[in-house]
């Protein structure tokens, strides 16, 4: 008899050791009996009924099929996402005393983790001990991945430290990659970098895959110099970078508009016979499109096609979106049709991009034609499709059609999200349907769904622009009672409401209250107040306020400048009273 320590995970995130007495089972109990016929049957499992039927035949067979056969069936079911059924079958195996091994137990732990029940995964460790099955690196790697998936970052880090510190399990490259990926994808870039340095000091050395995780995290955190330094370091250590390494760096430099570095890296990888892939192509085209260089992006795509790199639907979507953002819908549609002509099937994102472009161009006929084309091509419109079209309908004043379209959306089983509700509220307000907007607002308040500050900002703005300042102010005053804090948009909106009604003293008081409450006004806030003074020709306030704006480094926007020019044309003597603004000084 041997006494074995077991790591237990409690609900409060604390790891403790408990002891079990375990008797090693006889070797004969784990003898492997392989039946190829069951493996063939497992490959034919296409649904849950097939799996359950095969399992029933397996447990009736004498002698029993091998542990390998059972593990293969369970893994197939996990891949099919029949998680509850997997648990049920494993319980039946334990009840029938069917032999199990570490592979089956690791599958079950993974199954629990995919259900976001890592706590149940930890409970499986007792079965390892009861059956004399040793833990392995896969066991704890799976549990670590499960904790990260549930955003239990602290618990995952504590478990990893305990495994290393108490020599329970020596981490390999796979376990390190899980921890580093888990940290980096949740914004813990420095901890990821620190873990790389720890790994370098141990027996398990980082490879290109590990370096890529850290370089990508640094790039996404805009720490490009540190990322490039690490890139040079890995080359000096004889660890050759691969296409993933270059893609991370190229993506980082593209997003910062550092095109010279992009060009250098691109030619360097080609010279090293590391050929750009479709991911490289999409990164570069996306970067160019975001800078408005859509023709250059399309030229890069043509060049890459000539080199044998075929773009995918994501690459096409990026360039189509670039043309749509510039209002060049003919070019966008040409590229869309070209994609189909090359047997690349558009996805729902492709349709949403084009529909959004047509809606912004007020081309509702083309919009609805595309909408009906979606289902004909075997796709389903999603919540974004409906939201885009709803906004387009409200923008051209087709409120009746918009409301019918919303009912149609609901009939498909789609539920409006925050974005959809904001579109509905803005649409009702901008078309004067204040009662309809407020009815929806009160309904959302009762449901307590999607009631964040952005929703209240839309309502306050809509009421102000429809001449209901008192109601808008009442909504504003209610915020603190329901635990929401006004942001700079909320304050600027209510200040604008006061200015529209000529209540300039109230506007100034709200501006001071805003700062007292720890919310700093921005350039937009000051322009709103200044426009109020200009509109009502408050000369003394204008000069004082202009000086204050200048001291804060704020500048005029186009609407303010227009009012100021008009006032100066009527009162040229005011020119000497206006302070000299610094050019390009904006916050």
From TrEMBL:
<dbReference type="Pfam" id="PF13041">
    <property type="entry name" value="PPR_2"/>
</dbReference>
<protein>
    <submittedName>
        <fullName>Pentatricopeptide repeat-containing protein, mitochondrial</fullName>
    </submittedName>
</protein>
<keyword id="KW-0677">Repeat</keyword>
<dbReference type="InterPro" id="IPR011990">
    <property type="entry name" value="TPR-like_helical_dom_sf"/>
</dbReference>
<feature type="repeat" description="PPR">
    <location>
        <begin position="382"/>
        <end position="416"/>
    </location>
</feature>
<feature type="repeat" description="PPR">
    <location>
        <begin position="277"/>
        <end position="311"/>
    </location>
</feature>
<dbReference type="InterPro" id="IPR051222">
    <property type="entry name" value="PPR/CCM1_RNA-binding"/>
</dbReference>
<feature type="repeat" description="PPR">
    <location>
        <begin position="136"/>
        <end position="170"/>
    </location>
</feature>
<dbReference type="Pfam" id="PF13812">
    <property type="entry name" value="PPR_3"/>
</dbReference>
<feature type="repeat" description="PPR">
    <location>
        <begin position="347"/>
        <end position="381"/>
    </location>
</feature>
<feature type="repeat" description="PPR">
    <location>
        <begin position="487"/>
        <end position="521"/>
    </location>
</feature>
<dbReference type="InterPro" id="IPR002885">
    <property type="entry name" value="PPR_rpt"/>
</dbReference>
<dbReference type="Pfam" id="PF12854">
    <property type="entry name" value="PPR_1"/>
</dbReference>
<feature type="repeat" description="PPR">
    <location>
        <begin position="522"/>
        <end position="556"/>
    </location>
</feature>
<feature type="repeat" description="PPR">
    <location>
        <begin position="172"/>
        <end position="206"/>
    </location>
</feature>
<dbReference type="Pfam" id="PF01535">
    <property type="entry name" value="PPR"/>
</dbReference>
<feature type="repeat" description="PPR">
    <location>
        <begin position="242"/>
        <end position="276"/>
    </location>
</feature>
<feature type="repeat" description="PPR">
    <location>
        <begin position="312"/>
        <end position="346"/>
    </location>
</feature>
<feature type="repeat" description="PPR">
    <location>
        <begin position="452"/>
        <end position="486"/>
    </location>
</feature>
<feature type="repeat" description="PPR">
    <location>
        <begin position="207"/>
        <end position="241"/>
    </location>
</feature>
